[in-house]
Amino acid sequence: MIEIIPAIDLIEGKCVRLTQGDYGQKTIYNENPLEVALQFEDAGLRRLHLVDLDGAKAKKVVNWKVLDKIASRTSLHIDFGGGVQSEDDLKIVFENGAKQVTGGSIAVKQPDLFQNWIRVYGGEKIILGADAKKEKVAVSGWEEGTEIWVYDFVEQYVEKGIQYAISTDVAKDGLLQGPSFDLYRNLQDKCPDLKIIASGGVSGIGDVEKLAEMNIYGVIIGKAIYENRISLADLQRFSN
User: Fold this and answer.
1) Of 116, 157, 119, 117, nearest to 137 (Cα)?
2) Where is the active site (predicted)?
3) Active-site entry in 9, 79, 169, 207
4) Is 225:49 a contact under the CB 8 Å cutoff?
5) What are the phi and psi torsion angles at 224 (to 5°)?
6) pLDDT value at position 134?
7) Does 131 participate in catalysis according to the annotation?
8) For the packed helices 181-190 and 150-159, what is the interaxial angle rounded to 10 degrees?
9) To the nearest whole percent, how much of the chain has pLDDT over 90?
10) 10 Å Cβ neighbour count for 44?
């Protein structure tokens, strides 16, 4: 059964969504992220993908108080990403209740530090963020492109012990036009034992069903929930 992972993206402590990572295309959905998290928990969902967009821009964790509030008031399994760039950031995030931490830019720009995190905390607690633009790795909230093939990038970290990877096709994110099924199929072919978490583009329950049929480990859903394309009731059957 595919893991359903609703997303809360944070700017100035509020629940927002961006379109294709563009801070200029921001929609505020709720000024109280805890309220949103409680709705997810009440619907029977077990996990939460919490993204600090302020942190991604500032290159340090900013919204850790929101993490602490949600972690202390719900039983959701939280994976946290955005701005985790140093050992201090990592400690702040774990101390404030995150069960897993996602590192993307750090895995590209400071691979020695990221590999040390994998060694110290284990491949089950550190998630690789492998966002792609035309199959090349994108970093820093997608504001920077690279020439690194995403498949080679992920394979390299699987060899270092990574067990989970979240991959977003930047071209699909926030557009409600369907996920990048080919990207995830290619990742599966390259890294068959990796727990792949699809992110970006989910437009309806049919997309979730297709990813489940592909045996993708998990799917992050944001805008489709907030825009009422998928109801929380629709997702409950995946959580049993």
Assistant:
1) 157
2) 9 (proton acceptor), 131 (proton donor)
3) 9
4) no
5) -60, -30
6) 86
7) yes
8) 40
9) 77
10) 15
Mean pLDDT for the stretch of residues 182-209:
96
**Active-site position among 52, 54, 131, 207:** 131
Tokens representing residue 222 in the block: 């944001």
Region 90-100 average pLDDT = 98
Q: Which residue reads 């595919």 in tokens?
A: 2
Q: Which two tokens stand for residue 197?
A: 């978490």
Distance CA(174)–CA(202), nearest Å, equals: 8
The CA dihedral of 67, 81, 7, 132, to the nearest 10 degrees, is 170
User: DSSP class of residue 2?
Assistant: P
Structure tokens at 164: 């989970």
Question: So what's the architecture of 3-238 in CATH?
Answer: Alpha-Beta Barrel (3.20)
DSSP character at residue 160: T
The C-alpha atoms of residue 58 and residue 60 are separated, in whole angstroms, by 5
Q: How confident is the model at residue 171 (pLDDT cuts 50, 70, 90)?
A: confident
Over residues 13-72, the pLDDT tens digits come to 999 987 766 777 788 999 999 999 999 999 999 999 999 999 988 999 999 999 999 999
